[in-house]
Design goal:
Layout lengths: L1 E2 L30 H6 L14 E6 L19 E2 L15 H10 L2 E2 L12 E6 L16 H13 L4 E4 L8 H12 L3 E5 L21 E7 L17 E4 L3 E4 L5 E4 L2 H18 L5 H10 L20 H6 L20 H43 L22 H4 L5
Parallel strand pairs: 1-4, 2-5, 2-6, 3-5, 6-7, 7-8, 8-9
Antiparallel strand pairs: 10-11
Helix pairs in contact: 2-5, 3-4, 5-6
């Protein structure tokens, strides 16, 4: 859905006291981002825009007043579980959740290249954190109890897709149980695999990506290679753009960001496209379809760094797939011999043998004629007399060479 140019500043503010030093808006970026250029989600829009599908963004909240998210009904009120009370989740202090939501469902705006992969989808904002990092630069942990409440709220509020742009190294019981609850409610759960890989070749833990039923998303850079820091392991199901990814910021404008957090919404949005196109398809089948329709990545298929490959919105929506098991084909039986064809082949072989025999005979006759002709011509020239080399005049004219060991033999 297209809206007007970005000429009006967003004025909506978080509730009083909700944000400590909120981030300002950013300048508008008008160029088409590389991620949208590579994935080309517009190819899928004639078949599905994600319309009718609610995607829950469990994050730092979503600024519903951003010009590309302010379409009526696009961002639902949601819920704030971070602060005590009954605040909505449709505001953001740090832009993280707003950026994630914009990659999923941002509207097209005139003269702006950036837009969401599933612009017809709705966003259910669920606020479970305020800042990505604390004052010391360390990652601010999310309370597992709060996160679990947010996940359960999403599953109970009709979300068909759940975006979790977060990752930790600890198996938290409340979160594990909440994920299992969402999976049991037929929700497609999509989670980032994390950015802690560094230079280590070890497989690091990643939760909630490695919980059963969760689709784990890694990140690639503009070159198509795994983004440095993007974790690898058996929990990487597929990858999406995550390096220098353009996304909306709170209030207005855009900013470039890195990480698996921003690769995850590309996959969540594609899941929304599929769920809108195939309303009766179960979540497990949606996940299987997303993996089966990826674009090949550098690591090949089923690799620990790239999973099944790069998410492909168009193929995920349009490609024909059969989800039932293949029927066993009957064993092949050799057809009976064709007697007529065999007889014809035998006649050709016989004719070929005869032709080769006649050819050989003709060549032999020709050679014989040539030899006889040469003899006749030579005899006529000598008037039929023997040549000198054939005549021995007397015994003295004959010189015989003796073997070397006899030349110097001593006479007795």
């Amino acid at each position: 859905m297209a809206v007007g140019p970005l000429t009006v500043q967003a004025t909506a503010a978080p509730p009083r006291g909700a944000c400590n030093n909120p981030e300002p808006g950013r300048p508008v970026e008008r160029l088409l981002p590389w991620a949208q250029e590579m994935l080309k989600p517009q190819r899928a829009w004639p078949f599905s825009t994600g319309s009718g599908i609610t995607v829950a963004v469990v994050d730092s909240g979503v600024d519903a007043d951003h010009p590309q998210l302010r379409t009526r009904g696009k961002v639902l009120p949601g819920r704030d579980f971070y602060l005590v009370g009954s605040l909505p989740g449709n505001y953001d202090c740090v832009s993280h959740g707003t950026g994630v939501a914009s990659i999923i469902a941002a509207d097209h705006v005139a003269d702006i290249g950036f837009q969401g992969v599933a612009p017809g989808a709705r966003i259910l904002p669920i606020r479970v954190s305020e800042r990505e990092t604390g004052d010391t630069g360390q990652v601010e942990p999310i309370d597992p109890q709060i996160l679990a409440k947010g996940i359960r709220y999403a599953a109970d509020s009709g979300a068909r897709v759940l975006n979790l742009s977060m990752s930790g190294d600890q198996d938290q019981g409340p979160v594990r149980a909440a994920i299992a609850y969402a999976v049991s409610k037929d929700v497609v759960v999509v989670a980032a695999v994390g950015n802690r890989q560094g230079n280590s070749g070890d497989v690091l833990p990643s939760y909630p990506a490695q919980y059963p039923g969760v689709l784990g998303v890694g990140a690639i850079s503009t070159t198509g290679a795994r983004l440095q820091g993007s974790q690898f392991g058996p929990y990487v199901d597929l990858v999406a753009p995550g390096g220098s990814v353009l996304a909306a910021t709170r209030r207005t404008g855009h900013a470039y960001s890195d990480g698996t957090s921003f690769a995850t919404p590309f996959v969540a949005a594609t899941a929304a496209l599929v769920r809108a196109a195939y309303p009766k398809m179960k979540a497990a089948d949606v996940i299987q379809r997303l993996k089966a329709t990826t674009t090949p990545a550098r690591g090949g298929t089923d690799g620990s760094q790239y999973g099944a490959g790069i998410v492909d919105p168009y193929r995920a929506v349009t490609e024909g797939m059969v989800l039932t098991a293949a029927h066993q084909l009957p064993s092949m039986q050799a057809p009976p011999p064709d007697e007529h064809a065999l007889a014809i082949a035998a006649r050709w072989r016989t004719a070929g043998d005869e032709a080769r025999w006649m050819t050989s005979l003709a060549i032999g006759g020709t050679l014989l004629i040539i030899v006889l002709t040469a003899l006749l011509v030579g005899g006529h020239r000598r008037r039929w007399r023997a040549s000198r080399s054939a005549i021995t005049r007397n015994h003295e004219d004959v010189q015989t060479e003796l073997p070397p060991e006899r030349l110097f033999a001593r006479a007795d």
